[in-house]
Each structure stands twice: as structure tokens, then as C-alpha cells.
Amino acid sequence: MAxxxxxxxxxGGTGRSSIAANLARLMADSGRRVALVDTDIQSPAAxxxxxxxxxxxxxxxxxxxxxxxxxEDAAVPLPIAPGDGALFxxxxxxxxxxxxxxxxxxxxxxxxxxxxxxxxxxLRLDLLLLDTHAGINNETVTAxxxxxxxxxxxxxxxxxxxxxxxxxxxxxxxxxSRRALVVNMVPPGMDGHQAGQRAEAAYGMKATAVLxxxxxxxxxxxxxxxxxxxxxxxxxxxxxxxxxxxMDED
Length: 250
Ligand SMILES: Nc1ncnc2c1ncn2[C@@H]1O[C@H](COP(=O)(O)OP(=O)(O)OP(=O)(O)O)[C@@H](O)[C@H]1O
Ligand SMILES: [Mg+2]
What we know:
Helix 1 packs across helix 12 (234-246) and helix 5 (110-122) crosses helix 6. By secondary structure, the protein is α/β, with parallel strands linked by helices. The longest helix has 14 residues, at 16-29. Strand 3 and strand 4 form a beta hairpin. It has helices spanning 16-29, 46-49, 61-65, 99-105, 110-122, 138-146, 158-161, 164-173, 192-203, 215-219, 226-229, 234-246, and strands spanning 3-8, 33-38, 76-78, 86-90, 127-131, 149-154, 178-186, 207-212.
């Protein structure tokens, strides 16, 4: 059965999109059929991380939600390492296209959930990753409620950690009981073990990964995906190492 994994953060800028995009690529490189859906219609990013700066006239998630296309028409195939895997990206929207209709008229959120199921079937996916907007909105609620597993991404600072209780409660209410915690951007000079422990205490769960602030990751600036540009980087090795624990292959 295909697994749906959503990434969520209480606050913005924690590294969700970067982690989602790199995990998606590495999962596909290891032979799985993977799609990443950028549900962050307000501030899309995933397409930039894959170097797709010019989206128009491609179809996007927003076009699907306002009835202009089928969801699978919005799935862009992306290059991966040779093997049995496949990687697709469903970008959130192109430039301002679609956002006016969505803001003015809204859309049927049931379509989003149907779209996830349809993508799994049409693209014969093993894994569907859902990038989300920070905090709580319609798309985030639907993504988390649809997911078999939630990856919570947080920095170890006090502002991020104050949202821990709310995030845990949110996932609980939406019935997403399998959770993983990724502590990201541990500043240089801060002990990673301590940063991990602080986040673990706030979230009441073990951290699956504690990732340092990596200037190379901040600098990639969208030309190429970080995992493709720096396959030997220690952070990429950490991404690879956590993949088995994020998937239920029973
Ligand atoms: N471990 C890291 N070290 C250094 N920079 C990082 C790290 N992780 C992410 N970044 C950088 O931080 C910035 C924000 O990352 P990203 O867009 O992935 O976060 P986000 O949580 O998806 O943000 P948003 O809330 O805007 O959607 C990007 O410039 C990214 O390259
Ligand atoms: Mg993002």
C-alpha cells in the first residue's frame, strides 16, 4: 500500500520544503515511485528547489483545485538516478495563476484528498510526500489528516518549541499517530545533542534526525536540488539514513 507522509511545522522557515524535496529525491533514487505535492499554495517553494523556475504554462495543483485539469496532469516527472524508481512533483501554482480564484471563490477541500488518492493510483506510487504551509490552514489539515505519518520539522529555538503542544494535539485530533521529529538548522557552536534533547522534551518524542545549519544548503538557491548537487554531504547522508525509519514497509 502506498504511504502518505506529510511534513509540518508550527512556524515558517524551518526547512520543511528543503527536507521534503531532498527526501523525495533520495527515496526515488533508492527505487521507489515517489511524488511530492506542494500544498503550500500561499508560498510555494518545491518547484524552485527542483530548478523549475518557469512553471507556466504547466498545470499545477491550483489549476486542479479550480477545475482546470486532472491532478495527474499537474505531475511533472523529474530526473533521478538510474533504477526502478520515479519522481514526480505537483507544484502548488505558477506565479499568480489560480491564486485569485482560490482566494475569491475557495475550492472544495474534498478535491485535495481525492487528488492524493488519484495521484497514487495514476502514477502507481509507493510514496506520496506532502509539503505544507506553516501553521494550520485548510490544506495543512487535509494533508495531515490524509497522512499515515507526520514529520514535524522544528528548530530548537524557544519560538519554534512553544508550538510543540499545539502541533502534537493537532496531529492527534486528525488521527495521525505515526510521527517523526526532525530538528533542523542547529546553529554552529550549539551542541546538536542538547538541541535534540530540548526539542524532544518539548514534543515528547525522540528525534529521528538532528541536522546542523549547513551553509551549503542555504546557498544552493534553487539551481539544483541539494542532494543532487552535494550527494556526499553529511546532511545528505543523514537524510539517507533516516529514510527506512520513515516508511512502513510491513
Ligand atoms: N539545515 C539547513 N542549513 C542551512 N540552511 C537550511 C537548512 N535547512 C533549510 N535551509 C534553508 O532555509 C531556508 C528555508 O528553508 P525552506 O524553504 O525549506 O523552509 P520551509 O519551512 O519550507 O519555509 P516556509 O515556511 O517558507 O515554507 C532556505 O533558504 C533553505 O535553503
Ligand atoms: Mg516551504
